[in-house]
Amino acid sequence: MIKLTLILVALLLLSGFSQARDVIRYQTSSLSSDANNPYFIKLLEQVLQRTQAQFGDYQIQAVFGNLPKARVARMLQSGELDLMWSATNLDLESQLAAVYVPLLKGMQGYRIFIIRADEQGRFDSVSHIQQLKQIKLGQGFNWNDVPILRHNGFNVIEGDKSRMLAMLKGKRFDMYPRGIYEPWREIKDKADFVVERSLYIRYPLPKYFFVSKQNSVLHQRLHQGLESMIDDGSFDAFFYAEPRFIEIFNRTRLDQRLSFQLINPDLSPASQQLVAQDKYWLQTK
């Protein structure tokens, strides 16, 4: 009888282990479209599926909370969450373990401009970055872009985000750089503004998955899965099939614009090593 009981207990334990799965918790928020962006969740799913044979089953779990990024980072450190995605900076990489594969192929660092509706001709005449630096630009208070733009010699006027278009209209500055997926919705039904059509700036600003520095297994799993997707071409296939990105590239026509490459002084040595590796980045002129 004792022997039968032991066998049953062993079978139950084995059954439990076979059904065990890694629960990977991330924060979702009603205040952040980025936290809810299905692209990152679908990409995470692909990476976890690809590594399932080696690392085991998994469950992705959304944890709701309208929290600032700093609080989410602390929750990763304390074990309340397992994963976040964010544009990188030195402070974040000092707190958490970055998975060094850019999730957006560097698209996060591409900027086009909102300008006053009657001033396109001024920008059509720009052929050198020194000409562009003579034009005052606007950015929100304490935005990550501000030190990058100033490091590269731009005259940056800061203001409250809610006042930026009013400041542009009032000629406090003359161009308002925005991410390539942002400007059209921000000036919808605003006849005083247009999206500048001939230029863009870019700087390396990778967005990574981040995990706790104690969660080395998940870090290895994510890095291995992403690198595998990069190497066999499935990452590019996934990225360029994303409907929102197709719309962005069709609308921005980057290949018909003059681009200016800037330096990002806030990159870690590990991120800097990726900059010269074309496989990780958008290939634009």
What does this protein look like?
Helices cover 42% and strands 20% of the residues. The protein is α/β, with parallel strands linked by helices. The protein has 2 domains: 158 residues, Periplasmic binding protein-like II (D-Maltodextrin-Binding Protein, domain 2, 3-Layer(aba) Sandwich), CATH 3.40.190; 95 residues, 3-Layer(aba) Sandwich (D-Maltodextrin-Binding Protein, domain 2). The strands form 4 sheets. Strands 5, 8, 9, 10 and 12 form a 5-stranded mixed β-sheet that branches. Helix 8 links the parallel strand 6 and strand 7. Helix 2 packs across helix 11.
List the helices and strands and how they pair.
Blueprint: H1 2-19, E1 22-28, H2 38-50, H3 52-55, E2 58-64, H4 69-78, E3 84-87, H5 90-95, E4 97-99, E5 110-116, H6 120-124, H7 129-133, E6 137-140, H8 145-151, E7 156-159, H9 164-169, E8 176-179, H10 183-186, E9 193-195, E10 199-202, E11 207-211, H11 216-232, H12 234-240, H13 243-252, E12 258-261, H14 269-275
Parallel strand pairs: 1-2, 6-7, 10-12
Antiparallel strand pairs: 3-11, 4-11, 5-8, 5-9, 5-10
Helix pairs in contact: 2-11
Query: How many domain regions?
Result: 2
**What is the count of β-strands?**
12
Q: Please report the number of helical segments.
A: 14
What would you say the CATH architecture of the largest domain is?
Answer: 3-Layer(aba) Sandwich
Distance between the termini: 76 Å
> What is the name of the CATH class of the largest domain?
Alpha Beta
The computed structural class is alpha/beta
Global geometry? globular
The CATH topology of the largest domain corresponds to: D-Maltodextrin-Binding Protein, domain 2
Identify low-pLDDT runs. 3-19
At the fourth level of CATH, the homologous superfamily of the largest domain is Periplasmic binding protein-like II
Main sheet, how many strands, which sense, barrel?
5 strands, mixed
Order of helices and strands: HEHHEHEHEEHHEHEHEHEEEHHHEH
